Amino acid sequence: MVIARQAMPRRESVDDTLNRLRRYIQRYERRYEVPSEVMSEAVTRSLVKETAEISRWLNSYAILKKLEERPGRTTGIRTKIT
Q1: What residues pair up with 79 in beta bridges, in sequence order?
Q2: DSSP three-state, residue 79
Q3: At a CB cut-off of 8 Å and minimum separation 6, what does 10 contact?
Q4: To the nearest 10°, the Cα dihedral for 31, 11, 81, 15?
Q5: Which of 10, 57, 71, 78 could be joined to 28 by an S-S link, Cβ 3.0–4.6 Å?
Q6: Is the pLDDT at 73 greater than 60, yes or no?
Q7: Which pLDDT belongs to residue 74?
Q8: Which pLDDT band holds residue 32 (cuts at 50, 70, 90)?
Q9: How far apart are CA 29 and CA 32, in angstroms?
Q10: Is residue 63 predicted with pLDDT exceeding 80?
Q11: Is 3 left (phi over 0), alpha (psi -120 to 50) or beta?
């Protein structure tokens, strides 16, 4: 009998979170060959359809910007270990 291992939450440092988000966002910027700021504006102006993939990309971009603006980034964000 195989028992599925449940993901255990852990704390990730803010710097680790920032780096992970930057890598994720860079993948989409390379794939679509456009900076996040430009894609965000294009979606806002209805020049580009906001797919689920683009939505995840732009939400991650918004989170990155908020974390970068946060003074004294000392607390972590809960993530799941898989």
Answers
A1: 10
A2: strand
A3: 78, 79, 80, 81
A4: 30
A5: 57
A6: no
A7: 52
A8: very high
A9: 5
A10: yes
A11: beta
Give the whole-angstrom CA distance, residue 18 versus residue 28. 16
Taking the CB of residue 16, how many other CB atoms lie within 10 A of it? Answer: 13
Contact of 11 with 80, CB cutoff 8 Å: no
Between CA 43 and CA 55, with CA 63 as vertex, the angle to 5 degrees is: 30
Supply the DSSP string of 2-47, one letter for each residue.
--PPPPEEEEE-HHHHHHHHHHHHHHHHHHHTS-HHHHHHHHHTTS
Length of the chain measured in residues: 82
pLDDT at residue 22, rounded to an integer: 97
Average pLDDT for 32-42: 97
Asked whether the beta carbons of 81 and 6 are under 8 A apart, the reply is: no
Report d(CA 2, CA 76) in Å as an integer. Answer: 33
